[in-house]
Amino acid sequence: MTFNELDIIEPILRAVDEEGYTNPTPVQEQAIPIVLKGKDIIGCAQTGTGKTAAFAIPILQLLHNKINPQWKKRFIKAVIITPTRELAIQIGESFSTYGKYTQPKHAVIFGGVGQKPQTDALKNGVDILIATPGRLLDLINQGFVNLAKIDIFVLDEADRMLDMGFIHDIKKVIQVLPKKRHSLFFSATMPKEILKLANTIVYKPDYVDIAPERLTADAVEQSLYYIDKSKKKNLLIHLLEEVNYFSVLVFTRTKHGANNLARMLCKAGIKADAIHGNKSQSARQKALQNFKSGKLHVLVATDIASRGIDIDELALVVNFDIPNEPETYVHRIGRTGRAGLSGLAISFCSQDEIPYVKDINKLTGNQIPVIDEHPFVPENGRFKTSEHSKTKNPPNPRKNQYKRNFRKKLK
Ligand code: AMP
Fold first, then answer.
1. pLDDT of 338
2. Crossing angle for the helix pair 10-18 and 51-64, to the nearest 10 degrees
3. Mutation probe of ligand 1 site: the residue of 13, 338, 341 with most atoms within 8 A of C-beta
4. What is the per-residue pLDDT for 171?
5. Could you tell me if 225 and 312 lie in one domain?
6. How many angstroms separate the CA atoms of 167 and 385, rounded?
7. Band of pLDDT at residue 411, cut at 50, 70 and 90
8. Domain with 317 in it: what CATH number?
């Protein structure tokens, strides 16, 4: 299928074409026609599947013809709520990209920074507002935002919203929306409580489900190293030195752990930085920018800070700590192997994390292959378990197209 076949208007087709997209991703193929028809949607899709364009493109199209560029006053016609500042910024960038030849104007608002530039943008008039929940409520209460006339409401990453404790904020926002509206609900996972929330928001929805299993099974080459907790740093440095990777995203459980690890890597001569919620917005943006441009080779992140980090050509994802929710594992490794390309993900499992690996294998229906031979194999072999299939040789990243691409880029 091509974008042409989705009945997308020429100014958006041109922008998509300039981005180099040839075909819509599955979530786009399914969601765009539903949204263009004006139907509500419940979409189960994670970051990396092309979900942003799946709602941004039809929203731009639906609003494009409604806007007269001569209008002096604009009012908000669509609002997108997303859990983190990084995601909000990235969604804003997507609207800029896909909407560069269309009429709607958008603004992005999020907390942790002064509100003046954001309220100035709002005063100038916007059609589409992208917001994190706290700042949105704050600006609604201060009278800078009025959502009474919106046509379209998008709730993005609903499961993460719940994890982050935003449920009350969301409910308050919903109260100020018009009852009659077009609602789009997206979540990476769809447990019962999320579905329950979804059903309080949407009306007669169509469902789109891009199963995470497909992502793990098809696109990402995975491996698991059993290792003592205290040796994880050594193993990471060893692997990074051995293979000389570029563009590695490493996940740790805690902010403190992220800082420590980035410091250790720098000491070992590896260009690394950490990104997490305690860092200022500008420090996070700078680290992300340096990573995207290749100045930094390794970015150490916590799950929340990394949510939605949008890097097209990520060579490797490392689970330095195994996440205790299996969905998070799928979500993390989905950062590599994006948009149909292959990727590589390695995970370090200490003894106390074995139950998490079991949960992951259950969710994905696959056993993560275990690398038995490495310099830091636990002495008493206590991690050996018949549960896992075993692989003698680690995956050969030299075969990996990302690495070649990055080498080319860095030359
Ligand atoms: P998202 O899931 O929205 O975070 O998108 C993941 C990545 O896929 C982003 O870097 C997009 O630029 C890219 N992308 C989105 N749609 C397409 C497409 N149809 N073809 C190629 N890349 C895409």
1. 59
2. 150
3. 338
4. 94
5. yes
6. 40
7. very low
8. 3.40.50.300
